[in-house]
Specification:
The structure holds two protein chains of two kinds.
Chain A: E1 3-9, E2 18-24, H1 33-46, E3 69-70, E4 73-74, E5 96-100, E6 109-111, E7 114-115, H2 118-125, H3 147-157, H4 164-168, H5 175-186, H6 195-208, H7 219-223, H8 231-247
Parallel strand pairs in A: 1-5
Antiparallel strand pairs in A: 1-2, 3-4, 3-5, 6-7
Helix pairs in contact in A: 2-6, 3-5, 5-6, 5-8, 6-8
Chain B: E1 5-6, H1 23-30, H2 36-39, E2 43-47, H3 51-62, E3 66-70, E4 88-89, H4 101-111, H5 118-138, E5 163-164, H6 170-187, E6 191-194, E7 197-205, E8 208-216, E9 222-226, E10 229-232, H7 253-260, E11 265-266, E12 271-277, E13 300-304, E14 321-322, H8 324-328, H9 338-350, E15 362-365, H10 367-373, H11 375-393, E16 402-411, E17 414-415, E18 428-430, H12 448-468, H13 481-500, H14 506-520, H15 527-547, H16 559-583, H17 607-610, E19 612-617, E20 626-631
Helix pairs in contact in B: 3-6, 3-12, 4-5, 5-12, 10-11, 14-15, 14-16, 15-16
The chains are: A alpha+beta, B alpha/beta.
Bound molecules: flavin-adenine dinucleotide, iron/sulfur cluster and FE2/S2 (inorganic) cluster (FES).
Chain lengths: ~250, ~650
């Protein structure tokens, strides 16, 4: 198939970027979106042009490294699908496709489609863990965990930290990402001792990193490749209120 | 032509002898300790943040050492360990089904086709139980039963249920546990994290590993980093084949640079090829995706009887289908071990009976299972896998048989380490898939995650003390001779890669190298093929260094430059893999030499000649490496030949 791509090109964080048009011909509908970009890049290199920089690693939808706005939608048109798992058969021959990086105040562009998501790590540093130094653990069966809680914790823990939720949010909020981790750890008995400090610390870090506030727009969950539900944000808010009330 | 020479044998000096059950305890007791007040004065560099590196960095920091951690991704959470699906083994015997530390030890030594060290494997089995405790305490959401206790399943042909899992995302959940522990130490100021940094050289001073040269992948800045010890946790090298189930960035650079500086590289030819991957769909293919092996429980593998039969699967009548695994291995059928299933698929494709693009695929058909169990039952078991398959291929496996083909999955070889996980360079420790230590010639399913976490949480943090007790070592400066030289090596190589400005892309070379390796050093190897591969690799390597085109400069994010450096190292590794495969004139585990098979086509070991670890010493690019043998002795598990007929 033949496509017209309009791609965001930006040399470095401080320079201004712009959309550049490329005609990409003879692409197999079985190629993934990233493989289509690989093919384009190979051609650009041989033509003496600078290839397009984009992040990726596993190409299996699990590492959370890839991500771009495709026709204005984070990770593109297929639901519950990362960019690396999106295939060209979902596009029409002759289609024009806009490709841009995540756009959010807390995710500065590094180059072309590559952004800096380090702010996610700082949210985790502020409490997204259970303090359990190596060697100090009791037997794994010492504390049974009801299956419903374990399953719910697992669902929340499936977040891959890709940042699509932030890119889709009109406020550039990372509330879905934060709520997923607060939910994962808060649903388990092991996570109880630090439950209050965790939610307060993570929310402070969230705001400090420059993410916007949540206004329940719900765009985040629509684009989330792992289907992290909005209900976790409700849970986070209630945890936060309880923690703050207790602190007085 | 001499492809290698033989040098002095080597031995593992760190392993205690005596009863195997007490060796680890005695080693821990015998190892020197470091006074907590002194630990602050000691710095450890950890390269890699996968299960092995993430757990090691967090644990060393908790112990009080100053840690500097590196990964090439934008966050430590994205290391390739994240992709592991199936599960992690541990000898908990929660099922009361006869499992024990001894049985896990026995299965692993046997599964490794008697090419691993008994002492190491026994320790791995012992430590496995602590891993599960540790991970649960961190909040890893393992699958549970209704009573609230942990669920187990059996995996990879073992007769006991000892595999712990978190849906199809075990690797991700375990890695997030280690990552969160690491982030906690970062917040406490005990770990300095350097994401998007790539190690390009090892700094060896006074014969000891004392630091690394790294490139900041965003700014291109080259810097030298010093420490009292260096830990490599940089993962496996399956990407030498270009197409594999590994993440795109997986590479051998960190290990290879250490090898060039004197660390021996052990058993490089032992490669695991997984039988159930989604086949290539065209020349654009950039990686291969693994489908869980559990599919073989209900799917039937077949190809057309007649070569070149290009009818649709549905149009091929039953009588013209060859269910070749059921035919050749009547007692195990579709459930034969990984290597046998892989080789059989290659054979039928070589006969021209493969299906799909390029004839590189075989059918995995669920029609009988759907007829027998009903669509709903099949969906309940395999629904998410079928969905994943459809997402990638566009085909619906409920109505059309899946197509599968083997793909490179795991590398058992790696840097040689002793019982303390120390390489032949003092102060250089190697953990996880990057070392060669525990799996022999073949790794069992769900055992890599176990080994990575055993090394990182429990083994290394104990053994490294013995070395660090002699530190802090003398302070280094940028102007020390060895430091200047290491840095110059990196800069010269980058300049060279950027200046060639040829007419072929890095990927085109990598693909071609991958083809050579797959053809001659893949599922079936012969003396003739390997000899040919070595000469093909050498000439392609020369071509690479004269014709490669790396666009851009070294001063910014330059993904082609990163790849070029990795491919350059793969070229050298590829040659060593072929030499190793050539010298080992026997079949064992993941290494099948066509000349060494039983009359019915099974792998045939030659214990009298080859019961050793082949550790290779670097002598120069394209120069014959020196073979150093470490003899293997089996006091507990007596070597036997396997059969699946
Ligand atoms: C698809 C798939 C499924 C699997 N499923 C299972 C399973 O179910 N059970 C099981 O037991 N095993 C499984 N395995 C194997 C297992 O996942 C790996 O062997 C294991 O996770 C390797 O862990 P590691 O910590 O050694 O390395 P990795 O997780 O690969 O980490 C390597 C780290 O090193 C860093 N790095 C590499 N080179 C450099 C450099 N030059 N400079 C700086 N940093 C560098 C990377 O950034 C990364 O952080 C699977 C493997 C694959 C591919
Ligand atoms: S919540 Fe969803 S969209 Fe946001 S980072 Fe996690 S996986 Fe990505
Ligand atoms: S590349 Fe890993 S999720 Fe897309």
């Amino acid at each position: 198939m033949n496509l017209k791509l309009r791609v965001w090109r930006q040399t470095d964080p401080s320079s201004r970027g712009r959309m550049v048009t490329y005609l990409v011909e003879d692409i197999s509908p079985d190629a993934s979106f990233l493989e289509m970009l690989d093919v384009l890049n190979e051609r650009l290199i041989l033509a003496g042009d600078e290839p397009i920089a984009f992040d990726h690693d596993c190409r299996e939808g699990i590492c959370g490294m890839c991500g771009m706005m495709i026709n204005g939608v984070a990770h593109g048109p297929s639901r519950a699908t990362t960019t690396c798992q999106l295939h060209m058969r979902h596009f029409k021959d002759g289609e024009t496709i806009d490709v841009e990086p995540w756009r959010a105040a807390a995710f500065p562009v590094v180059k072309d489609l590559v952004v800096d998501r380090g702010a996610f790590d700082s949210i985790i540093q502020a409490g997204g863990y259970i303090s359990a130094p190596t060697g100090a653990a009791p037997d794994a069966h010492a504390t049974p965990v009801p299956k419903v809680d374990a399953d719910a914790a697992f669902e929340a823990a499936t977040c891959i930290g890709c940042g699509a939720c932030v890119a889709a949010c009109p406020n550039g909020s990372a509330m879905l990402f934060t709520a997923a981790k607060v939910g994962h750890l808060g649903l388990l008995p092991q996570g109880q001792p630090e439950r209050d400090t965790r939610v307060v610390g993570m929310l402070e870090a969230h705001d400090e990193a420059g993410f916007g506030g949540c206004t329940n727009a719900g765009e985040c969950t629509t684009v989330c490749p792992k289907g992290i539900p909005l209900t976790l944000i409700g849970r986070l808010n209630s945890d936060y209120r309880k923690a703050v009330t207790k602190r007085g | 032509m001499t492809f290698w020479t033989e040098g002095e044998p080597i031995a593992d000096q760190a392993a205690p002898d005596g009863p195997i059950e007490t060796r680890w305890e005695r080693r821990q007791f015998g190892a020197k300790l470091v006074n907590p007040a002194n630990r602050r004065k000691l710095t450890v560099i950890v390269v890699g943040t996968g299960l092995a590196g993430g757990s090691a960095a967090a644990t060393l920091a908790e112990a009080g050492y100053k840690v500097r951690s590196y990964c090439y991704q934008d966050s430590p959470r994205r290391a390739h360990s994240i992709a592991a699906q199936g599960g992690i083994n541990a000898a908990k015997n929660y099922r009361n089904d006869g499992d024990s530390v001894y049985r896990l030890f026995y299965d692993t030594v046997k599964g490794g086709d008697f090419r691993a060290r008994e002492s190491n494997v026994y320790r791995l089995a012992q430590v496995s139980v602590n891993i599960i405790d540790q991970c649960v305490a961190q909040g890893v959401p393992f699958a549970r039963e209704y009573g609230g206790l942990l669920d187990n399943r059996s995996f990879g042909g073992t007769q006991v249920s000892r595999t712990f899992y978190a849906r199809g995302q075990t690797g991700q959940q375990l890695l997030l546990g280690a990552y969160q522990a690491l982030e906690r130490q970062i917040a406490l100021g005990n770990v300095e994290m350097h994401a998007r940094h790539e190690m390009l050289e090892l700094v060896v001073v006074d014969g000891k590993a004392r630091g690394i040269v790294v490139r900041d992948l965003v700014t291109g800045a080259i810097s030298t980093e010093f420490a009292d010890a260096v830990v490599l946790a940089s993962g496996g090298y399956g990407n030498v084949f270009f197409l594999s189930t590994n993440a795109k960035g997986c590479n051998v650079t960190a290990s290879w640079r250490a090898h060039r500086k004197g660390a021996l590289f052990a058993n490089p030819c032992y490669t695991q090829i997984h039988p159930t991957c989604i086949p290539e769909s065209g020349t654009h293919q950039s990686k291969l995706t693994l489908m869980s092996e559990s599919l073989r429980n209900d799917g039937r593998v077949w190809v057309p009887v007649r070569a070149g039969d290009d009818r649709l699967a549905a149009d091929i009548p039953e009588a013209e289908r060859d269910y070749y695994l059921e035919r050749i291995y009547p007692s195990f059928g579709n459930l034969v071990p990984r290597d046998i299933a892989s080789r059989a698929a290659k054979n039928v494709c070589d006969e021209g009976r493969g299906v799909g693009p390029g004839g590189l695929g075989v059918y995995l058909d669920f029609a009988d299972a759907i007829a027998r169990l009903g669509r709903d039952a099949v969906e309940a078991k395999y629904g998410n896998l079928f969905e994943m398959y459809e997402r990638i291929t566009g085909d619906d496996p409920y109505t059309t048989p899946m197509r599968i083909y083997p793909a490179v999955h795991y590398t058992m070889g790696g840097l040689w380490v002793d019982y303390d996980l120390q390489s032949t360079i003092p102060g250089l420790f190697v953990v996880g898939e990057a070392n060669f230590s525990d799996h022999g010639a073949n790794r069992l399913g769900a055992s890599a995650l176990m080994q990575g976490l055993a090394d990182g949480y429990f083994v290394l943090p104990n053994t490294i003390n013995d070395y660090l007790a002699a530190g802090p070592f003398r302070p280094l400066t940028e102007s020390d001779e060895e430091v200047v030289a290491a840095r110059a090596l990196v800069e010269e190589r980058i300049d060279k890669l950027l200046s060639i400005d040829g007419d072929r892309t890095v990927d085109s070379f990598h693909r071609e190298l991958g083809h050579i390796m797959w053809e001659y050093c893949g599922m079936e190897r012969t003396e003739e093929g390997l000899t040919k591969a070595i000469s093909l690799i050498r000439s392609l390597r020369e071509e690479f260094w004269t014709r490669v085109k790396v666009p851009g400069t070294g001063e910014t994010l330059n993904q082609n430059l990163e790849r070029a450096g990795r491919v350059a190292d793969f070229f050298e590794l590829a040659e060593l893999m072929c030499v190793d495969a050539l010298h080992r004139a026997e079949s064992c585990g993941g290494h099948f030499r066509a000349e060494s098979q039983t009359p019915d086509g099974e792998a045939l070991r030659h214990d009298d000649e080859f019961s050793y670890v082949a550790a290779w010493q670097f002598t120069g690019t394209g120069e014959p490496p020196v073979l150093r043998k470490e003899a293997l002795e089996f006091e507990y598990v007596h070597p036997s030949q396997r059969s699946y007929k």
